[in-house]
Amino acid sequence: MIQVLFTALALASAALGCGVPTYKPNLSRVVGGENVKPNSWPWQASLQYSSSGNWRHTCGGTLIATNWVMTAAHCISSSKTYRVQLGKYDLTVSEKGSVTVSPKKIVVHPKWDSSKVSDGNDIAMIKLSEHVTLSDKIQLACLPPANKILSGNSACYVTGWGRLETNGASPKVLQQGCLLVVDHATCSKSSWWGSTVKTSMVCAGGDGIISSCNGDSGSPLNCKSGSKWEVHGVASFVSSKGCNYYHKPSVFTRVSAFNDWIAQVMQKY
Q1: Which residues belong to the active site?
Q2: Is the pTM of this model over 0.85?
């Protein structure tokens, strides 16, 4: 039954189209990341919370259906009021074609434990209060097939509005960085992450140069599959020693380990 649910989700995404941006991203391996081409990652979301009358970006997210955004569980607090922005490039200005939607329901994975981040399950689903209209600036991401494992050294792109460096400034415009996937056998070595990383996670980076950082949490790890992009990871954590610490790759929740749960949540709510 669960497999049927996910198949239905995949067919629905295919019918609407997913993973093929109208504006193709500029793909390079610039040291430290770079500004994206505007709207070239059209499934990227900004999760924001209300603070003293202002809205502040806290995490990224991925639009996987016209009324569902996927993000990290650690981004969610029951004490905060959130909104989601889609179709954004520069968070500081009003942009034509962007939309702002409030959540109708937020579902955190039931096995998520904020005191044990390394246990995994750092994933959450946000049901939007209304369906968004897809456009050249707002499109759906493709999810990978269940249990698909990326091969080591696969080149993927992390996107987000996170800090440009450890304790550094937060950018106004969306950033991208090319990260090479580190296979689990390597990433789980004692000189890397050791037992901290689980098979339900994806490691990427670790070259000491490019990584995700504070504010990138919940953002997608975008990996090319044929002519389409699939979101294989949800940005989860980096080393306490720094965002781009050598042999401490950025760690992502592996989306393909949660296909069934995602499908169940979307059907239930």
Answers
A1: 74, 122, 217
A2: yes
